[in-house]
Amino acid sequence: MRLAGSNVQMSDAATDPANTGGTSLLEIARAMADEPERHLLLARLQAVLGKTFKASGAFHPYPLIVHLIDTAQVGSLVWDAYLPRGLRDALDRASADRGRQCFMWICGMHDWGKATVAFNRGDVGAVAAPELDAQGLHDDPAAPRGSTDVPHAVLTRFLFNQYIRGSGDPSLRGADWLIYVLEGHHGVFSSPARDIALNPGSVGAPAGWGAYQRAVPEVMARLTGFDSALDAMPRGRLTTGEQYALAGYVAVADKIASSLLENKMISQNPWLADRNLALAERIDHLTLAANEQAVDRIWHLNGTDRFPAMWTKLTEGRGRSAPDALAAAVRARDEPALFLVDAALTADSVWEAARTLIERFELGGFHLGVPDEPSRLTWSSAIDAELTAEGLDGSLAPLLSYKAQPALDGTWFYQSADRRTLLPATVDVNRQLWESVQLPVPKSRENRDKEAKGSVVTIQFAGFASKAIALTDAAGYCACELRCLEEALMWLASAGAPVILEVAGLSREHRRRLASAYARGIAETYPVELPANFDGPAEVTAVYAVDGRLRIDTTGTATAAPLRTPKGCTDECPGDEIESRLLSRPGRGSGAWPVRTLKGLFEP
């Protein structure tokens, strides 16, 4: 496993390139500031906390800069193990082929908003208060402050917005999407049409807090191999779906890094408690290389090193079934596509097609979505049989049922249902997919929703966006589910995920709507005209784009199946409130921090 400390190249003149990953915070402070400012900078890096942890019956401080470093280094592992090739390529294009470093820096900056007065009025601040005052980071009771309950993710957005505006670099206008991605790492996104005007009593005085806030991105940039924060900022624009998936992967890195402070993890490995206590006292000699052991250990303790390795074994086998029309259509395409299959899907056909897609686009696995519980049980058994034939019975096979306790033993990270979409092979009803493409819930001041609810949707979508998706029996969906399916196809197309969709028995109108939805996601425009050859009697119809131009390919000739009437809606349906989140007009939001559609979110 490649770790961050093994390939970081410090470009500052004060850094010895031969000492890869060995540059300490003290050395970075020396490169950034003269005496006595460097000592003040180090003291503030030690004093401002990101979290606390419990050891020996007492709460101890955990410096914010250490949590940011932890998250950046976990981000390097997330890049290696989870990010699909399409998202890696997009970040490379946006950062002059330094996508991995850029992703590390983005992960490391997710909690920048904790470097403010407002965050430090909470429980963490109570632990930090004496040291903050000693370093000139005061909470002036006379300063206008407004709400003291400003979420730290919103404060991150505010600081990034101020940074971009104050940089004087017009090329950063193309990076404004990063503001909202980082704000949304807990799944709640605010309206970009409304500037945030925070009182000085929330952000902090420029002379004290302001100097510290400006130093944080510079320190993280040098640690991740950039000359400066300006150098680390991406310039290009990712697609809307790629941005949403990126927010989910930042949340993944944050959760894994945060587990360094989990009592359950520390109890399994007391060495972590000693390491955390040492950093609570002194951070000036902390280096990426010195931090590798902790990051690698928590990656292993979470179980996040188990399943990617299994998937490598899974794709090494040779195809056992004879090529069919779906396999031929999939092999003919070098671009992510929607494959509409006018025949009943079978387990061996889906399995062979998914393996081809996974290998071609370097995906993290496959997901099979089914309309109901009986279908889930049938398909789980069928795919289990395919995996058993590959010699993986007892490892990946139990994951498919979502009753996966034997396979998940010792993998704390995957115990939460929202994180199981990151597993390499899943079969499930489509509820999680529908949830992942709906607007994240707002956090009003009356209902915080405890953070966990917000981050569910981003992690879920990241899992789906990194896989080959196969969806069975679209003709068995109700009207509400078909609308959800349209929305899901737009998002998956925007994120570059290939989709296999069984449409036998579905009406011509619904087929066109689903194909148009995927095409709209590719182009992120509305409306989309389908080519004239779309309605031909083909066994497989592929919808994709080359150089921005929509294409339709057909494979085989199908005998039209009898049309089926969509099933009736029930009380458990997603409901009539489902509408386009990708292309609809921006909503007005609610509460102190208005939530709007993700289309509006990611526009300039």
UniProtKB/TrEMBL annotation:
It holds the Pfam family Cas3_HD. One of its GO terms (molecular function) is endonuclease activity. This is CRISPR-associated endonuclease/helicase Cas3. GO terms for biological process: defense response to virus. NCBIfam families: cas3_HD. The lineage of its organism: Bacteria, Bacillati, Actinomycetota, Actinomycetes, Glycomycetales. Residues 57-256 form the HD Cas3-type domain. InterPro entries: CRISPR-assoc_Cas3_HD, CRISPR-assoc_Cas3_HD_sf. Gene3D superfamilies: 1.10.3210.30. PROSITE patterns: HD_CAS3 (PS51643). Keywords: Antiviral defense, ATP-binding, Endonuclease, Helicase, Hydrolase, Metal-binding, Nuclease, Nucleotide-binding.
